[in-house]
User: Fold these one by one.
Assistant:
Number 1:
Amino acid sequence: MKKIIYPAIMLLASTAFSPVNAQTKLFDGKTLKGWKKLAGNADYKVEDGAIVGTTVLNSGNSFLVTEKEYGNFILELDAKIESELSNSGVQTRSHFDPEGNKGKGKVYGRQFEIDPSSRKWTGGIYDEGRRDWLYPLDLNPKAKDAFKVGEYNHIKIECIGNEMKTWVNGVPASDVVDTIDSKGFIALQVHAVSEEKQANKKVYFKNINIKTTNLKATRFPKDVYVVNLTPNSITAAEKANGWKLLYDGKTNTGWRGATLKGFPDKGWEYADGTMHVLPSAGQEESGGGDIVTNDNYSAFDLSFEFKLTPGANSGVKYFVTLSEVTKGSAIGLEYQVLDDKLHPDAKLGRDGDRTLASLYDLIKANKQERFIHPIGAWNTGRVVVYPNNHVEHYLNGVKVLEYDRGSKAFRDLVAISKYKIWKNFGEAPEGHLLLQDHGNEVFFRSIKVKNLK
C-alpha cells in the first residue's frame, strides 16, 4: 500500500504547488527590478513593501511599466490613494510611442481607472492616450461605492481573449470586449497635476501578482452591462443574459417602414455593416421614411451606435404606436441624434431640449463636450426603460438624463411641448422602436436590446 499511496500524494502535492497553477510576483516588495519609468516626471520608490508614486506639479502622466509584455492574464494587487484630489490607474496590454506628446513620449492602452472623485468611477476602463472612456462607471452604479479612499483596496483585472473585466474589493465593476491590443505591458500610473494642492500626493501599490496559465474567465452577474466594441455582435454571455441584435449587419430582418408593410425600397442601405439613412431633401419623410421594429417593447435596455455627417439630424424613438395620424415622422419619445453645432434645431425648443441625446422637445441632455465623439466618428446611445417607468438616456456610457414616464413632472413638460396635441403622449404600455429618416445622411450599427420584464 505504501508504494501506491506515497507516489499519489507526491503527485498531488507537486500539482497543487506547480508554478503552472501559481501566481507570479511582479513586485518583490523591496526593489523596482523588472520595472522602468516612462513619460512624466513623477517619482517612484519602494517604501514598507509598497511601490509609492508621488505627483509632481506640471508633470505629464507618469508610468512605471513592466519590462515584460503580457497577453492573457489575471492580475491582482492592492492599491491606496491618499486624497480625492488624486487620480491613478493600472495599464493593461499597453504600449509606448516615444514620438508622442511632442517628443516627450506617450503611453497608450486600456487602463483600470482609480478615480476617487465625487463621480466614483474607480474600476471603470479608460483607453489612455487613444479613445478615452470605454466604460464609465455610470454603466454599473452598483460598483461606485466599492473603492475606499485612504485605504488599501484589492484590485482584480482579468484579460482573457478579447475581454477585459475588473473588480474592486470583490465587486464586479467593468466588462469590455475589444479587438485592439492582444499583448502589451502593465503599468502603474501617477496622473498629471496642474495645481499646487494636487502636488506631492502619493499613490501606493503592493502585493502585485499575475497569473498567465490555466486561466478561466469569471462570469459576471447578469445585470452588469457589457461594452462590446465588436460591431454588430453579442457575446455568448450577452445572449445568455437576454440581449439580442436588432440588426445583423447584413439584412433588414426585423424592420419595416413605419407606414409600410415591408422595408422601404429607397432611402436606406443596410448590407455593409451599417443601417444607413441616405441623404435626400433634409426633411422628415423626404426619402425612404422612418423604419420601425416589427416587435413592440415595454421595459427594455436599448443600445445603439450612430455616426453623424456634418449638419445631420435623426433620432431613435421608442413607444411608437403608429396610431397617430401625421404626415411627418411617426410620434414617439425621441432620443435626439443631431449635429449640435451645425444643425439649426439645436437652437430651437426650450433650454437646449433638442440637442444631442436629449429627450426631444422635453428634457435637455446634461452632457460634457469631452464625452462627445466628433462628427464622423461613432458614438454610442443607450435608453433604459425600467418596469416602473423610470427612463434613462446615456451617451458614450455617461448618463445624461432621467425621468419618470407618466409622472406629473413628465406631463407638465408634455403640456408645454409640441406633443401637447397628442393625448397621453409617451405613456403607451408598449410600442415599436424607430430609426428616423430626417433627410440627412446618418449611420447606425450595433443595435441591441434586452427585455427587462
Number 2:
Amino acid sequence: DCLTKNSYNESRCQHLIDALYDCCEAFYKKNGDEARTVSCPKPSLLRLKLAQRQKD
C-alpha cells in the first residue's frame, strides 16, 4: 500500500488517490448520490476534494 510505505504522505501517492477519486466519481455518476461504498468518500466530500485538486 502506497500510503503505508510512504508514512501516509499523500503527495507521494497522488496518482493513486487521483485514480481512486476518478473511479468514485464514475461510481456516483452511474449509481447516484445515494449509493454507498466503503472505498469512496460521500459525494459532497468527493466533489470538494476534486475541486481542490483542480486548483492545485
Number 3:
Amino acid sequence: MADDDGAWTASANEAFVISLVAPGSNGKESKFHPRFTYPIFGEEEEIFGYQDLQINLRYNATDMRPNLQIKFSKQFPAIGDAEPLDIKEVLSEFLPEVAFQPLKDWKSELAKPRDDWTPPGELLTSFTNKAGRFEVWKGTLSDPAVKQLVKRIQILVPLFIEGGTAINVDDKDAGHWTVFFLYQKKTDPSNKKPTYIFAGYSTVYRFFFLHLPPTPPTTPLSDNTSSPSPINDPIVIKEDFPLGTPTVDITTLPCRSRISQFLILPPFQHLSLGSRLYHTVYQTYLSHPPTKEITVEDPNEAFDDMRDINDLRCLRSLPSFQALQINTSTPIPKTGPVPKNIIDEAAAEKVRKEAKITKRQFYRVLEMQLMSRLGESVRPGIGLDESKKVATATERKEYALWKLMLKKRLYVHNRDALGQLQLEERVEKLGEVVKGVEFDYARLLVKMEDQEQKLREEGEGVVVVMNGKGKRKSTTEGVDNDDNGGSVRKKARVEEEEEEEEEEE
C-alpha cells in the first residue's frame, strides 16, 4: 500500500459541511458542521477511502430542498476487502431522492424563488427580537407539504441531536405527529419582497391518556376467607400508546402531548429562539382541551435548563402557584414519615393539572420556587457569596421543612437504588444528592435572573400565557437534572443551545 491508512481516512465531522443558502441570485450562504456523525458513519466518525474529502449538503433555506455533492482529490483503489466507503449509498438512507439531482438544477431552482411561498401549515405566532422577525408555523404529517419538508430535514436530527432518530413519515400513525416550524422572515433587498429562512423545528406526538379510578377494596368471601377479587388483580396500565382506531376521532380523545424532537440550527443559536419555540409549543397545548399533560421525550441537560426556566416563569404568572408556600407551623418529627402538610398538596396538585405539567417536573419547579423564597441566611447558593446573616429560628425551620419535602421526593424517585444500601450509607447518599440538587436549583435561579437582566437591558419581553386566558408581560422569554446522582443514563433527543451556554447540547 503506497500510503498508510491514515492518509486515506478523514474526519466525518470536518469533511461534512451543511449550508443554508438564501434563495435569489445573490443568496447569502451560512455554513456549519454537524455535531455528530456516528449515527451515519460509525462510532469513530471517520470515512475511509478518500483524500481531501468534502461532503457538501446544501439547503435552499426557504423550502429546505437539499442537494448533496461529494468531492475529493484521490480515491483509494480497492484492494481485497479494503475499499472506499460508498458515501452516496450511505447517505441515501437519510436523504430524499431530490437531494441527488445535479447541482446546476438545484441552483436553477434556487435562483427562481416563488414570490407567494410560505411555510406549510398555519401561522401560529410571530415575534421580533434583535435578530429580526420570526414566525412559527404548525402542521401535521397528514399534510403532504409538511411531510415533504420533514423528509428533507430529517437528516439533521442524527447530525445535531445525540441519540436522535428520524420519524417514519409513511407510518400509518404519521397523522399523530404535529410539527412546529420556526422561520426567520426577511425582505429580499433585490426586490423588496418577503422571504423565509428556516431556523429550526420541533415535533410533538400525541399519546392516549388513560386514567383509571382507584380500585375498589376486595370483597370478603362468605367462608370468612379473603381472596383477591378479579378487579384487584394486577393491572398493567400503558399510558403512552398511539392514539386512534378506525372508528374513533382521535382529535377528541384525552391525550398526553410529548415533545419528541427540538432543533435550532447553529446560525440561529444564542438568540433565545429555543425558549420562544418551546413557549409557543407549550402554550399551544396548554389551550388544547384534549391534552392533559405536556411531556418531553428523553431531554438532555441543556434543554432541561431551558425547560425548567420557562416552566418556572410561566408558573409564576399564576396567582395560585404564587400562593403555594411552606407551612412553617408543621412540626418536624425526629423519626417516622415526613409530614404531609408541609405544603397544601391538594392546592399544588390543582395547579399542576391546570398547568398540564408532569408530576416530577412540576414538583422540581415548585421546589425551586420555594427555595427562592427561603431567607437569604439559609437559602442554598452556588458559593459566590459566602457571607450570610445569622439565621432566625423561623428561617432555619422553613429550610428544614423544605429539605424534608425535597428528600421525600428524591427518596421515592431513587427508591430502588437507595434500597440496596445500608441505612447509614443510604442517609449519606441521600444527603449528597440533596446537596447536588440544591446547587443545581441555585445555578438555574442565577441563570434565570441573568437572562432577565440581559433582556431588560435590551428592552425585549415576551407574553406569558397560562390556560390560554390570562396574559402578563414578562421581562424575558426562557436532568430534569438527574436527581439520583447521575446513575440514570439519559438519551438526548432534544437540541437547543441557550444564550448562556458556551457549547451546543
